[in-house]
Design goal:
This protein is mostly helical. The protein has eleven helices and five strands; from the N terminus they run E-E-H-E-H-H-H-H-E-H-H-H-H-E-H-H. The longest helix has 28 residues.
Length: about 300
């Protein structure tokens, strides 16, 4: 711990610091915190207005900002994220609504199951501590979320494009009762959008981390704030609830849609307890308090 003059309070550039590839200099990153009590300082130090300084050993850039290529990478990832969701909606609404089959039933279902399992595995793999540590060593902290968004979005597009059609239909509801199913679908879309807004959709897409240096934290779980407003005050996983309503809220449930809906929702049911176990272990009791406040995981009054 070293002491420096309280003025200036912000970071300053070292005249003899290491040059960067762009020809400028790298500032010494410091964080100033007033000493308490100030009487602990020597009289000379009190006259000079000294404060304690903690040297931050690892920073991705001199002032917390991300390089231009990094920002471009994050914004392109966000666009890809939106494009992958749009492509899924198009595929589910249009392509999967066609009653056709090009491969044997058993082969198509096995292929679709394996395909979605591959998509689901990347969530589990990236949740492992060893993989997260490896990513942290190779990817700048501000781009970790964007790196994940790129992989997830590309995999979702691949799943939708390679999904094998399955013939038949589980149900077909004509109007006007069929309109009620569209209402269920619309409710699912609204819940998903409302829930994403509550947790900051830009942070979810990996953009907030590159536009706001304060969003760059080494341990994301250390500062998690669990929302209790809007859908998060009703169930603990409202985005998953929205997904259930979207994939099952269709008046015509073709075989292709049914396989996609069942497989994807089955994965969510498996993932929820695993995700909650990790949150309870890594949030120092905050998620336990959230569980006591919001009782239901997915369906109010049921589960």
């Amino acid at each position: 711990m070293a002491r420096v003059a309280e003025q200036p309070l912000l970071m300053w550039r070292q005249k003899q610091s290491r040059p960067t590839p762009n020809g400028d200099t790298t500032p010494m990153p410091v964080m100033t915190t007033p000493l308490e009590p100030r009487a602990a300082l020597a009289p000379a130090a009190r006259r000079e207005g000294m404060v304690a300084v903690t040297i931050i050993e690892r920073v991705s850039s001199p002032d917390g900002r991300v390089s231009r290529p990094g920002r471009v990478f994050a914004w392109l990832g966000a666009l890809l994220f939106g494009a992958s969701l749009a492509y899924f909606l198009f595929s589910y609404a249009i392509t999967y609504g066609e009653n056709q089959q090009t491969t044997p039933l058993g082969t198509a279902i096995a292929w679709d199951l394996a395909l979605f399992t591959l998509f689901a595995l990347h969530h589990s793999v990236f949740a492992r501590e060893r993989v997260r540590s490896l990513v942290a060593r190779t990817v700048p902290a501000a781009l970790e979320r964007s790196f994940y968004v790129w992989i997830a979005s590309l995999l979702l597009i691949a799943v939708c494009a390679l999904w094998r059609p399955v013939t038949g239909a589980a149900w077909s509801i004509a109007a006007p009762l069929g309109w009620l199913m569209y209402g269920v679908l619309g409710l699912g879309v609204w819940i998903s959008i409302r829930s994403a807004q509550a947790i900051d959709v830009w942070e979810l897409a990996g953009v907030r981390q590159v536009t706001n240096p304060n969003a760059q934290i080494s341990n994301p779980n250390a500062q998690l704030e669990f929302k209790t407003t809007g859908p998060y005050g009703v169930v603990r996983h409202p985005i998953y609830l929205g997904w259930f309503l979207m994939v099952f809220g269709v008046p015509v449930m073709t075989g292709t849609r049914l396989v996609f809906a069942v497989v994807s929702c089955l994965y969510l049911l498996i993932a929820i307890p695993l995700e909650e176990r990790t949150l309870r272990r890594t949030t120092d009791g905050r998620y336990d308090a959230y569980i006591r406040f919001v009782r239901w995981k997915l369906f109010p009054g049921i589960y």
